[in-house]
Amino acid sequence: MPGTKKLPRADYERELLRLQAELVKLQEWVRAEGARLVVVFEGRDAAGKGSTIKRVTEHLNPRVVRIAALPGPTERERTQWYFQRYIEHLPAAGEIVLFDRSWYNRAGVERVMGFCSPEEHRRFLQQCPIFERLLVDDGILLRKYWFSVSVEEQERRFRARIGDPMRRWKLSTIDLQSVTHWEDYSRAKDDMFVHTDTAESPWYVVESEEKRRGRLNMIAHLLASVPYYEVPRQAVSLPPRPEPTGYFRPDRRLQTYVPDHAATLLPH
């Protein structure tokens, strides 16, 4: 599989930092131009979507860049038009929204696990290209990324999560069941691509067998796909501090401070 050779950590971190600096420029361009950017992250369970989103947002302004990770639909939402609950999370002018899974749940987990009917799935495949064409026609910049990983690597990552108390929360019942539905998910993905990999909103596949390479490749592609430029910034300087006017702080003993836990880490 291409792109599996592991990058040295130093090279990876150097390039990641450079790309993150460019993401800050992209963010400022979106804000200055009033652009609207939607980035969809989809793919196999444990393929690296969440860790990539974490690196994308690490140095960005949460008032400009939001992550939309919707829970399961409520009873009321189940009676709505399928795309309705996603629409309210779309960006306004000057905003970026990253969908950590998206309306494509219907083409993947809902179809495979039987959470939607064959008719609902058929209707989704028919309506989705139209829905996305409306977004693009209205000026939204839509980017869709599919994170690909082998069955062997997915199982390795699952086992690593099971043995790590800090990451075990990432494993849901649905994730575990995906192990026994590998071919079903493959067929669902292939069918989804046939209907939704369109000229207006194409899918971009990220080889994520090696996470470092996958993160860098995805971020670099996103940056290259948007015609942003560096927005000139106004010079910033601190105002002069005024002369004291006779204010005195209250006695520190009147306030409750958190214990100095850090001090316990120092050698005695």
TrEMBL record:
Any Pfam family the entry gives: PPK2
EC number: 2.7.4.-
Keyword entries, A-Z: Kinase, Transferase
GO molecular function: polyphosphate kinase activity
Family named by the database record: Belongs to the polyphosphate kinase 2 (PPK2) family. Class I subfamily.
Record note on quaternary structure: Homotetramer.
Protein name (database record): ADP/GDP-polyphosphate phosphotransferase
